[in-house]
Amino acid sequence: MTALLLHRIHFGFTITYHYLFPQLTVGLALLIVVLKSIALRNQDERYNQAARFWARIFAINFLLGVVTGIPMEFQFGTNWSQFARVTGGVIGQPLAMEGVFSFFLESAFLGLFLFGERRLSPLAHWASAFLVFLGSWISGYFIIVSNAWMQHPVAYRVLPNGQYEVTSFWGLLTNPWALIQYAHNMSGAVITGAFAMCAVGAFYVLEDRFSESGKIFLRVGVVAGVIACIAQIFPTGDMQGKYMAKHQSAAVAAMEGLFHTERGAGIVLLGQPNEQKQTIDNPLVVNDVLSFLIYGTPKAVVEGLDRVPRDQWPEPLPLLYYAYHIMAGLGTYFALLMAVAAFLLWRGKLFATRWALWPLMLSFPLPYIANTAGWMTAEIGRQPWVVYGLIRTSAGYSKNVSAGNGLFTLLGFMGMYSALSILFVILVYHIIANGPERAASAQVAEPFTVA
Amino acid sequence: MGFIWFWLVALMIVAYVVLDGFDIGVGILHPFLARTEEERQISVRTIGPVWDGNEVWLIAAGGTLFFAFPLLYASAFSGFYLALMIVLWLLIMRALGIELRMHMEIRVWRAFFDGVFFISSLLLAVLYGAALANVIRGVPLGEDGYFFLPLWTNWRIGPEPGILDWYTVIGGVLALVALALHGALYLAVKTEANLQLRARSAAMYLSVALLGLTVVSLPATIAARRDGLDNYWAHPLAFVVPALVFGALVGIMVFSRKQDDRKAFACSCMYLAMMLVGAAVALYPRLLPSSSDSANDITIQKALSGPHTLHVGLVWWAFGMALAIMYFVIVYRMFRGKVSLEHGGYGH
Description:
The complex is a heterodimer. Helix content of chain A is 73%, strand content 7%. Chain A is mainly alpha-helical. In chain B, a hairpin with a 4-residue loop joins strand 3 and strand 4 (345-346). In chain B, strands 1-2 form a two-stranded antiparallel ribbon. Chain B has one domain (10-334). Chain B is mostly helical. Chain B contains 13 helices and four strands. The interface between A and B is large, with 70 and 70 residues.
């Protein structure tokens, strides 16, 4: 394995694992604020109990997000030092701002939210939940701004020493790519949170244990879920696709498996890309749809990979193609499932409809897969560039860190993260098995110390 | 601009060491000082609501370094690759050790997480000290501004140094003792009864050891870097800093004998801050000196970001820091006073 490939896998593995946690943090932070708001408005203690239950899961999830997140900020320097050296003046800025504006806020108010309930007034406790939510959503924006600049560099100039510098700070923060990507990404995180809440709710209702709490979880989870699932496709996914087609046409062609430029391009639903023959094997295609999705008219010309110089094809191309199809396929399934669940909830039949509760319980891992696949689409789609059109990925990694050293630490992270996964599953399962009522009483006896 | 950002980054590192230093110190000491389960719970709870916020200073300092001095960030982080990765693993383990003991009602697991918390805190302290010593000693920088250090070579300061050699090991031991002392004084402030008494007596022993190590570190530093005192001779006023280091040490000893724990802890903060400032004064205007050819030194001027970045940065940095300090005041006020179990965790 070459050092370049190892450094790519190093960052790819650690960021993929890391993002399993923040997506739930971001989604749950919003849903906990919803629960606390209902509790405060209606003076309904059941919603406070529900919020306490989810706060316990949130705390463990947040902890794992923090510990797996710290390595990310360091890896720009450790594994991607040539890239960091020239772009620090641009993307170092939002990353530093994330620490200063978001992490201080989150760490301070999470402590108050988790053990301040009996010491704070209901309104102050609601406010601490809200500030934790605000911190996590601000954090997401700064990360997206950094990534969006790599996808679609704006507001920069090159200094004589080869370093990039921001020419307009405001321009960097309002990169159109960042705004679209942020909306799409945050809605994806809400889907993860909503599916987690629905899964636990469906489990309690099916099991007929804690089913009162289970119904609250389902109500909040389904309503949030149906809104987020629709927003994920339209407008956010639609805008992202159109904007990408304009600025990263090579990525879109590779995602769709469009090897040849076509008028009235069809959309490939299934099939395996064959790079040698430049075709799709076993294709299942719907005519004209791709042209319509991108340009709003079925006869528009969509540029294929044949318009892109071979050394600028995203690679690994089949992985990009599959990642995109998995994301889009799952997204469609989420919207259908949540629409059905929302209809049943509206008719008052959801809690008795076992055939709908089962998929709601079993589907919670799928948003993790879809969000991961979405990020893989974005990141592999950007290849072979680390900053699109400006810096090649092969010119960004740390030349002074050998493949042997890279593999050593990659294996170290894999081992450590395996242990983390086991701990996480045990702890969260424990909380779910104990149930919301136990969580409330246990907290009185033993305030836990996550801060 | 370079001067301002050099001292702002230094300030953030000082804040990190002073704040996270005491929770690392608690980790190093708690297996020895807290003998019952109840005492262990109390000692972990003294840092429970604050350690995470303290650690954010590391992230914030790292990010600030990244955008203000990208060359330094790129060169140092890749050059100290192995040590940094180990630091990251230790930070992960330490966080789990602190947080997860409370989620486990099984004694074996609690003992396990206590052990994880202890070992990771101890090794972190040693590595932080060694890291600072590496920066003072210098590294074999190439003309392209990069280097790569193995963890150790022959333990000597030569043309091919490792991250660990006799000098950086002294730095590591010094940091270990200094942070353990810092933690002992913090525990004395935050606890009562037996735990407090043991923390005080640990602080007495540790402060004597720290005085000895601090004295040893001076000739060792001059041996490792012959030009280490040049800035001091050029500006003799700077000798105030080492004087304050020793003043703080004396203060720690005097106040802990008088059982004035708060003042002793304040002196320990001063000691850590002045040690770091002393190193920064010696380095200025270098950020990372070369161990062989001073033409390859990474200086402020070489590493500084573009002017627009730094001007804008100053505005949001000042605003963000004001907010951060406000949060810290709120949290530390909220959880002030002695920690005991009876009053639901945090007594008043």
